[in-house]
Specification:
This protein is 45% helix and 13% strand. By secondary structure, the chain is of the alpha/beta class. The protein folds into 2 domains: 248 residues, NAD(P)-binding Rossmann-like Domain (Rossmann fold), CATH 3.40.50.720; 44 residues. Helix 4 packs parallel to helix 6. The protein binds nicotinamide-adenine-dinucleotide.
C-alpha cells in the first residue's frame, strides 16, 4: 500500500530535475501522475518531448501516468492540464507547481523580455494552474486536496542578479499564504517549498564560478533530495499543515520563519515626530537583530 494510493497528482515541469523526482516518487507511492513539461531550455526557449519520456518511465515501473506538454505560463495551458488529469484519471487531488526558468541579469542589464518571461513561468504559472484546480475543488466539493508551490531563497532572502526570479519567488510565497486561506474551507492545504538541489538550473551557476561539480556531489545534493517532503505534504499525515514554507536539500529539512511583527511601539498622542523616530528606529533594529540571532541559533542542524 502506498501513501498516495487513489490520488491523482499533477506536477508541472516534471520532465527533468526536481519535478521528475517528485513524479517518480509520487507514482511509487501509488499516485496516478500527470507529467507536465514543455521541455524547454533553462531560459525558457525551445521544446522537447521529455514529459512523454517520464510518463513512459513511470508506466514501465508499473505506475500510471499521462503526459501534458503545453506551457503552464498561459491560462489555456493550466486549464488543459487540469482537464488532462480529469479526462485521464477521473479527478485531481494534488497540484505541484514546480516548473521554472532562469534569465539572470543585474537590474542594469535586465530587459523587459527577461522580466516578463520569468514572471510568466513562475508567478503567473502558479496562477494559471491553481485557478482551474481551485475551481474544480469548489465545484465538485473535492476535499483533502493539496497544492505545493515552489519558491526560493532567491526571493525569500534575496540573491544578486535575480531581481525577476526573486520577485516571482517572493510573490509565490505571498500567493500561497492567500490560497491557504481561500481553500481552507475545502480542506485543501497550500504549502511552499524552498529547494536547494544540483540540477541543470543550478549546476551551470557553479561551473560559471569555475567550480567542477562531481557525480558524488550530485548524489549528495541532487533533486532526489527534494521529492520526499513534497510527497509527504501530499499525504494524509499532512492534512493539518498549511501556509508553511519548508526549505530542503542535501539531506537537510527545515521550516522557515515567516513575516511577523516582533516589536512594536505605539504613539498615543498624534503622529510620530521625526526626532522621536531617531530614538525609536534603533530600538526596532535592536529587536530584529536579536530575533535573527535567536533564529540563527535555533537553526543549527541536528543530525538524525
Ligand atoms: N535547483 C535548485 O536549487 C532550486 C532552488 C530554488 C528554487 N528552485 C525551483 O525549483 C523548481 C524546479 O527547478 P529545477 O532545478 O528542477 O529546474 P529544471 O530546469 O531542472 O526543471 C524545470 C523544468 O520546468 C520546465 N518548464 C519551464 N518552463 C515551463 C513551462 N512554461 N511549462 C511547462 N514546463 C516548463 C522545464 O522544461 C524543466 O524541465 C523551479 O521552480 C525552480 O525555480 C530550484
Amino acid at each position: 500500500m502506498g501513501r498516495l494510493d487513489d490520488k491523482v497528482a499533477v506536477i508541472t515541469g516534471a520532465g527533468r530535475g526536481i519535478g521528475r523526482e517528485i513524479a517518480l516518487l509520487m507514482a511509487s507511492e501509488g499516485a496516478k501522475v500527470v507529467v507536465n513539461d514543455l521541455g524547454g531550455n533553462t531560459d525558457g526557449t525551445g521544446t522537447t518531448s521529455i514529459a512523454d519520456e517520464v510518463a513512459a518511465e513511470i508506466k514501465s515501473l508499473g505506475g500510471e501516468a499521462a503526459s501534458h506538454t503545453e506551457s503552464i505560463a498561459e491560462v489555456q495551458g493550466g486549464e488543459s492540464l487540469v482537464k488532462t488529469a480529469i479526462d485521464a484519471f477521473g479527478g485531481m487531488d494534488i497540484l505541484v507547481n514546480n516548473a521554472g526558468i532562469l534569465r539572470d541579469r543585474t537590474i542594469f542589464n535586465m530587459q523587459e523580455a527577461d522580466w516578463d518571461a520569468v514572471i510568466a513561468v513562475h508567478l503567473k504559472g502558479h496562477y494559471c494552474c491553481s485557478r482551474p484546480f481551485a475551481k474544480y475543488i469548489r465545484e465538485n466539493n473535492r476535499t483533502g486536496c493539496r497544492i505545493i508551490n515552489f519558491s526560493s531563497v532567491s526571493g525569500l532572502f534575496g540573491n544578486f542578479g535575480q531581481a525577476n526570479y526573486g520577485a516571482a519567488k517572493a510573490g509565490i510565497a505571498g500567493f500561497s499564504s492567500v490560497l491557504a486561506l481561500e481553500l481552507a474551507k475545502y480542506g485543501c492545504t497550500v504549502n511552499t517549498i524552498s529547494p536547494g538541489a544540483l540540477t541543470r538550473m543550478t549546476i551551470p551557476l557553479r561551473e560559471n564560478r569555475g567550480e567542477k561539480v562531481e557525480d558524488t556531489e550530485i548524489e549528495a545534493g541532487g533533486p532526489q533530495h527534494i521529492a520526499p517532503i513534497v510527497a509527504w505534504l501530499a499525504g494524509e499525515e499532512a492534512a493539518s499543515i498549511t501556509a508553511e514554507i519548508f526549505h530542503t536539500g542535501r539531506g537537510g529539512i527545515s521550516i522557515m520563519q515567516q513575516p511577523r511583527i516582533i516589536k512594536q511601539f505605539n504613539k498615543t498622542d498624534g503622529v510620530w515626530r521625526l526626532d522621536e523616530l531617531d530614538a525609536i528606529v534603533p530600538k526596532l533594529l535592536d529587536a530584529i537583530r536579536a530575533n535573527v540571532a535567536a533564529a540563527d541559533k535555533s537553526a543549527q542542524a541536528i543530525d538524525v
